[in-house]
Specification:
This protein is of the alpha+beta class and 789 residues long. The protein has 15 helices and 43 strands. It is globular and about 75 Å long. The termini are far apart.
């Protein structure tokens, strides 16, 4: 008889499922976390015995703490410290025009705190290492204002302002709820708690705002509304998600141009102004009795019946199942057409802010579903606040660099005020509103202006990081694929940054400002987080600090860009003039003359043309733009948006994250193998061994494609030889210059030879095919003679 072996059965009681999730859901009771953004401040209530820990996240950031008692009297002894500063940093922040500190100003005024008599505790300095902590204990009840002051960054000193993290450990745990309700965005008109497994109806005046907030996270809320005037006439036309999807062209509206919800008569009812979650459902009905009956839970509470009860007093007839916008409900449709749901993306305090476009009768529910993951298996409350239409809220969505990061709301760049005079077509891009195209010209005219004259475009959303300290070169040599030791002061290099398996984290440019001073400019916040993590792991003496909001930038691109900028750019005698500035070089400069606005100008770009980028502090952006715009009138200057930028960069073979590369793509597969000098760079760097292997045994290659058809081709379209798929389109466009459809594509190396005939699949990939041919990459000026000129 054979020796039969059975799997070992674990003994003892069952263990909980393994789970990694943001720490906000696992903070111990009585622990609270606050992030003070660089050039920002927060106000926190404290009680005797509370422990306050301030962490210098990125290093080099000064902190100021002002403590006041419940009568508004300032006294540093409240946190067991002695005042050593007049809080000049906080005063400067509050005296500025930054709307993000409006809530703090309201809190200071409400508590009668007189900052003219302030005595602050100031600690940390420019040399403080990252993650350094300072701990205080509240000696009695009061409030603390914690500031991370910062002014206009000196581009040479790299004195940027960076975040601080504050952890509060409460001496006495009082809260019954799991999470405290966040402060209102302004003075509320209505403050309404929707208890778990219930619904509430409420009236909202035209122009007022509606904030629908998930208190504890992972909780769905159905929302419905009616035109009050129609209800007065006996017409029950509710918000209609089918009409909305059809008119907006989106699964559900988001802040921006496509942000309105309509009724069946196509009357706009509400507009989405802000959204900190970004994941909702506009396909399913609100849960109904039949749903629970059919899955074995007869009599279960449900949102549709709760809506019926809440709306009855407003003369609305009951319905078996209510159409609704299901905020925070996480649904999707898979490739087989099956709709599925999972836990919501929403976290404690996440919200959607709407604006009423007519007088409304509204209803909001707190979904009672405890039979599925729809509410994280734990239904909780929803909170509704309304605000006067006299308040001002900017359109915004929230982004996070990592799951642990605090949300950052979409911002307007320093150049927005000027560019918004030319267009209303702005799209959210990585936390900033950037122009998509311009009303007067449009993307085709913008494209030709870039190829023949000159354009100005806003690239402020690029992420900037200051890397400084005695080990900065060693860190950069290890992090980036290029040989940084060969980089001269004043030089810029285009490089990749890879994971150990060879997949790309990001591509970007590295500026060398000094022997121990570098500036990394990439496409994503996570690149900087990764660099700092590695510096931490290696124990290097280096600071890696974000400076994105200290230097916004426009690109001035096109054949006449040099002739334009030489009229307005002044440099010091020991630096190159604008005309002398070489390709991939930069120089500190000023606009107009020796005492003009400080800028940094680099001969770089993303268009395949001669071009420059001009960096300045956001406060100076309007003046910098005006100087460029005025000088550009003689050169046919046009503003250029993202649509035209995509066209010129595809022609020039310039890759874009998420389209032409990802963390599953190495630099060789992304067409930038030149950024990996394996022979000439002998020092080790992250991903080196993997890249040696992947270069030796390549699997895929980025190529150019000419398409013999006027049918549009899109990212992700499959590429075939016969029945077999051998690649996919990464980027595509209809080239005005070449007069044909072209694409960048990643194909199997076995079929990557020039001249290979392929077919691009449309519909299901087989029912419709477009003839195409593999051609040299890039389509336009592959030797880069124009930007070098």
């Amino acid at each position: 008889m054979s020796d039969m072996r059975f799997p070992e059965v674990p003994s003892g009681p069952p263990r909980p499922s393994g789970l990694y999730q943001p720490s906000v859901f696992s903070l111990p009771k009585g622990s609270e976390r606050y992030v003070v953004e660089g050039s920002g401040a927060v106000l926190i209530l404290v009680e005797q015995g509370d422990r306050i820990t301030v962490s210098n996240d990125e290093g080099g950031q000064v902190c100021e703490i002002i403590a006041a008692d419940n009568k508004g009297v300032i006294d540093a002894d409240i946190v067991g410290a002695v005042a050593n500063s007049d809080a000049a940093g906080l005063k400067a922040l509050l005296s500025g025009a930054d709307n993000s500190l409006r809530g703090l100003s309201m809190g200071v005024q409400a508590r009668g705190i007189d900052l003219s008599r302030v005595g602050a505790v100031r600690f940390f300095d420019w040399a403080t290492p990252a993650k350094t902590e300072q701990i205080f204990t509240a000696q009695r009840d009061g409030v603390v204002i914690i500031a991370a002051p910062g002014g206009i960054m000196d581009f040479n000193k790299q004195d940027t302002a960076t975040p601080l993290t504050v952890m509060i450990k409460r001496a006495v745990i009082k809260q019954v709820a799991r999470f405290e309700l966040p402060d209102p965005l302004a003075d509320p008109v209505l403050d309404l708690r929707v208890k778990s497994a219930s619904a509430e109806a409420y009236f909202v005046k035209a122009g007022d705002y509606i904030q629908i907030q998930d208190v504890d996270g992972r909780q769905c809320t159905d929302f419905q509304c009616f035109s009050a005037r129609k209800l007065d006439q006996g017409i029950e036309h509710a918000l209609d998600v089918t009409t909305t999807r059809t008119l907006q062209g989106h699964a559900y509206p988001m802040p921006g141009l496509h942000g309105k919800y309509y009724d069946q008569d196509m009357l706009p009812l509400v507009e989405v102004v802000q959204d900190t979650c970004g994941r909702h459902d506009a396909f399913a009905l609100a849960c109904a009795a039949k749903y629970y009956d059919d899955i074995g839970y007869p009599g279960h509470a449900n949102c549709s019946d709760n809506f019926n009860g809440a709306l009855a007093d407003h003369g609305v007839n009951a319905r078996a199942g209510w159409m609704a916008i299901n905020f925070f409900f996480n649904t999707a449709i898979d490739e087989h057409g099956v709709m599925y749901a999972d836990e919501p993306w929403s976290r404690p305090g996440d919200y959607v802010l709407l604006r009423a476009l007519t007088d409304l009768v509204c209803a909001s529910s707190a979904c009672p579903d405890d039979t599925s993951a729809a509410n994280g298996w734990n239904p909780t409350d929803i909170h509704v606040r309304t605000y006067s239409g006299e308040e001002t809220f900017q359109r915004a969505v929230a982004t996070r660099a990592t799951p642990e990061s605090e949300p950052k709301m979409t911002k307007e760049t320093g150049f927005h005020d000027r560019l918004s005079q030319h267009t209303r077509n702005f799209v959210e891009y990585k936390g900033y509103w950037l122009a998509n195209c311009y009303a007067e010209s449009g993307p085709i005219e913008e494209y030709w202006a870039c190829r023949e004259k000159c354009v100005v475009l806003d690239l402020s959303a690029l992420r900037k990081w200051e890397i400084t300290g005695p080990d900065s070169e060693a860190l950069c040599q290890y992090i980036f694929t290029r040989n940084i030791k060969k980089l001269a002061v004043g030089q810029v290099v285009y490089t990749a940054m890879c994971y150990p398996h060879g997949g790309m984290i990001d591509d970007g440019t590295l500026f060398r400002l000094g022997k121990d001073n570098f500036r990394w400019i990439g496409g994503d916040d996570y690149g900087g987080e990764w660099i700092r993590e590695k510096a931490d792991e290696l124990g290097l003496k280096v600071l890696v600090r974000g400076s994105t909001d200290m230097q916004h930038n426009v690109a001035v691109q096109g054949p006449e860009s040099r002739d334009l900028l030489k009229k307005i750019i002044w440099t010091l005698p020991h630096n190159p003039t604008l005309e002398e500035l070489g390709w991939f070089r930069f120089a500190p400069a000023r606009i107009g003359g020796e005492h003009g606005i400080p800028v940094v100008v680099s001969r770089t770009g993303y268009t395949g043309e001669l071009g420059y980028e001009v960096f300045c502090h956001p406060k100076h952006a309007s003046e910098v733009f005006d100087a460029i715009w005025q000088a550009g009138q003689a050169h046919g200057i046009r503003p250029m948006g993202l649509e035209a930028l995509d066209m010129v960069r595809i022609e020039a073979g310039l890759i874009f994250a998420g389209y032409d590369f990802s963390d599953q793509t190495d630099p060789f597969e992304a067409g930038i193998g030149f950024t990996v000098p394996l022979k000439s760079k002998e020092d080790d760097f992250i991903g080196r061994e993997a890249l040696i292997r992947r270069k030796t045994t390549p699997a895929r290659k980025l190529v150019g494609i000419d398409i013999d058809s006027a049918v549009d081709v899109a990212h992700g379209d499959c590429i075939h030889i016969g029945r077999a798929q051998i690649g996919e389109v990464t980027s595509s466009m209809r080239s005005p210059l070449l007069g044909k459809n072209i694409a960048l594509a990643r194909v199997d190396v076995a079929h990557a030879d020039l001249g290979t005939d392929v077919e691009i699949g449309k519909l299901d990939g087989h029912q419709k095919r477009l003839p195409a041919k593999i051609v040299p990459f890039a389509h336009y000026d592959p030797q880069k003679t124009r930007p070098r000129s």
